[in-house]
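Let us work through a complete example step by step.
Step 1: write down the sequence.
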Amino acid sequence: MSQTDNKRVAIVTGASRGIGVAIARRLAQEGFAVAINYAASAKEAEALAAELPSAIAVKADVSNADDVKRMFDTVEAQLGRVDALINNAGIMKTMPLADTSDALFEQTFGINVRGTFNTLREAAKRMNDGGRIVNFSTTALAMNLPGYAIYNATKSAVESFTHVFAKELRGRHITVNAVAPGPVATALFLEGKTDEQIAGFAKMPPLERLGQPEDIANVVAFIVGPDAAWVNGQILRANGGIA
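Step 2: predict the structure and record it as C-alpha cells.
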C-alpha cells in the first residue's frame, strides 16, 4: 500500500517506555507515522498510539525472528513500507560477570544483540531506499565500570553491526548509525540504584545532570532528518561529556 497520507514510516522498538516513548513522540512531531513496538506493555503502547497521529502499537519480541517478520508485515499493511528503524529495545541488568547466570546472559544477548540482528536483517529486505537506521549502544563502553561486562559486550556487538551494515547497504542511500547515551533518567537506568548512586552518576558529566529521554530523542530526530544525510556508520555519544 502507499505510505499513510504520504508520511514517512518509522518503527521504534521498545517504544512503550522511557526513551522509546520520547522518540515516538518526537518522530510524530517530525511528521512520521510511527509503529510503537512493545513486548509486554500493551496498555502503555496502546495509550501512546492513541495519543499520536498515524500511530499503531505492534506487539513483537524482537529476539524472535518470526515476530519481527510479522511486525514488518503489520506495519507495511497498516502504515506502509518502512523509512526509519529505531532499535531502541534493550535490557540492562548489571552485576559482576562471575555472578551472572546463564539465563541472564542469554536474555541480555537475546534482546540486545539478536533483537538488533533480527530487525536489521528484515530491514535490509524491506526498508525503502534512502531510509535511516538508528541502533542503540551505550557510553558505558567507554567507562569500563564493574558490573557492566555482559551489557557492554552486547553493545560492542551492536556497534560492530552498525559500522559493517552501513557498508553492506551501499547503493541504497540508507544510513546506519548508533546513539550511545550516557546515564539517562529512565526506569531502566534508575532501577536498583540508591539515591546516592544516582546523585553520583548525575555529577559525572561536566553538565552535572542526568540525561533526559528527550535529549536522546532529539539526537535520533537529527539522525533521521535531512541534516544528517552525510552521517553514516557512526556512533554518536550523547552523554553530556561524561566520556
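Step 3: interpret the result. Residues 83 and 131 are 5 Å apart (CA to CA).
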